[in-house]
Amino acid sequence: MNLKQDFRLLALIQIFIGLFMGIPAIIAYCWQEKAALHSFLLTMGLVALFSFLVLFVCRDRKSDRMSPADGFLFVTLTWVLATAFGALPLLLSGTMDNYSDAYFEIMSGFTTTGASALTSIEDKARSILFWRSETNWLGGMGIVVLFVAFLPMLGVKGTMLYGSESAGPTKDKLTPKTGGTAGALWTIYLGISALQVVVLMLGKLSWYDAVTITFSTMSAAGFCVRNSSIGSFQSPFVDTVCICFMFLSGINFSLYFKMLSGRAKQALRDGELRAYTDIVLTFSLLIALSLTFGGLYKDFLTSLRYAFFQVVSVLTTTGFATADYTHWPVFCQMLLLALFFVGGCAGSAGGGIKVVRVVALVNLGRNTLHKRLHPSAVCKNRVGDNVVDNDVMLGIAGFVGLYLTTGIIGAIVVSLAGQDLVTTFSAAFLALGNIGIGFGNIGPTGNFSVFPSWCQWVFSFLMLVGRLELVTVYALFSRSFWRDQAAWQASKNEKRRLNREKKYYKQHRQTQALEKIARQDEG
């Protein structure tokens, strides 16, 4: 493990994030939010001090290469440390009363969860709210993936970092170089974000509302600068724009690259994309019909609008709301609860288990049943036209098992806070799936302030492991991980010792040879 290189890059990425903090600092200055401005400037100073101290200590690194272990450690520490610094403006400005809530809020931002412990939003400094939404956007495509795009300039290969943070069972390389892939993904992400800002401003929204909504929509996050989320705008136009761009954010971004590269037919035939679209259409129609027959809305089109919005919001793990769905029929709530365990597509901004894993497991179950009926049949696990090999299926099954186990254990732990069963269960899986809104006291009209401060650390951990797909974080808690690193370091030290001895004996033989020649000359 190359710790000096890990911490050097960790310091650089904190500087990188600190530069983005300068944007809300400028907003605070323009809108004369003095407390917020001072908090941003002080935090940026602390980030700079920490980073330059680390860079000074780690200036004599021996190698630029990084192992998989370095990738796991670096990515995890990046999210933990970025959140630790990012939470300071909320605490120093008085937006949050304690650091636990502030850390939870910004972890929710960077992990694109969108859950909040704020009981009121619109009375807070607009620069602070902008920073919350900006953390959504940075975390959407991945702050590490963005950083990877710049690693070639630092002489570092970012393959291990990209693989440790990328979501899904497969890691598509769109270009021959990992830095090029990261750059392509972020260019697409930035382009679609800019398009949404323009469209929303054409709908007569202010630049502030348009940008903050876009930050949370494209990242599939859900922070909003209004108390009633998107529902506060009471605008079918805003609802429709958000539905479209939330849907786009839940699609594998590599498919956009294929479309732009002239492979649109191949992209549209993607099995996961078709399953994702089918889920949205089916669930939206079922909920719309239930709402219409239940008489909650005046006509089917209105029901369809609310149904589409909430289905796409939950499925992509965005967490926006235009209505309090806890007052909808139980059938509708059960459908939304089922979507908690799906999530967006692999390689998208969304969280959750991912559509490709769910489809693969459903096909595995179908094949298992078919094999029972026809023992000699040869069944292949498919997602669309792609065959999923047994090793990948084993990894998917292991991930889903670990995901459900983590959520259940998390729910058991936070049940000590004394909340009801529905609130406790949905809170744990909401945090793990990076969804943002749940049921019970944390529904569209509630928030996480109902939980004590110690619970916010549990939820922060669940959000982190969910965003980094479990394995990246859990690897650091494995004995074999550190034992392997210790064995690797011991082997490395032994090689160094042998090389030193070899060099010493070589020099010793050369000295003896020179002395022998000198004696012969004297004779």
Q: Your description of this structure?
A:
The chain has 523 residues and is mostly helical. Helix content is 67%, strand content 1%. The protein contains 22 helices and 2 strands. The chain has helices at residues 3-30, 34-57, 68-86, 88-92, 99-110, 126-141, 143-148, 159-165, 178-202, 207-218, 236-249, 253-260, 264-268, 271-293, 300-315, 330-339, 355-373, 390-414, 421-432, 453-467, 471-474, 479-522, and strands at 382-383, 386-387. The chain has a two-stranded antiparallel ribbon with strand order 1-2. The chain is globular and about 115 Å long.
Topology order in helix (H) and strand (E) letters? HHHHHHHHHHHHHHHHHEEHHHHH
Strand line-up across the major sheet = 1-2
Share of helix among residues? 55-70%
Structural class: mainly alpha
Number of helical stretches of at least 4 residues: 22
In short:
The protein is mainly alpha-helical and 523 residues long. It has 22 helices and two strands.
Descriptive keywords:
single chain, two-stranded antiparallel ribbon, 67% helix, mainly alpha, 1% strand, 523 residues
Topology:
Elements: H1 3-30, H2 34-57, H3 68-86, H4 88-92, H5 99-110, H6 126-141, H7 143-148, H8 159-165, H9 178-202, H10 207-218, H11 236-249, H12 253-260, H13 264-268, H14 271-293, H15 300-315, H16 330-339, H17 355-373, E1 382-383, E2 386-387, H18 390-414, H19 421-432, H20 453-467, H21 471-474, H22 479-522
Antiparallel strand pairs: 1-2
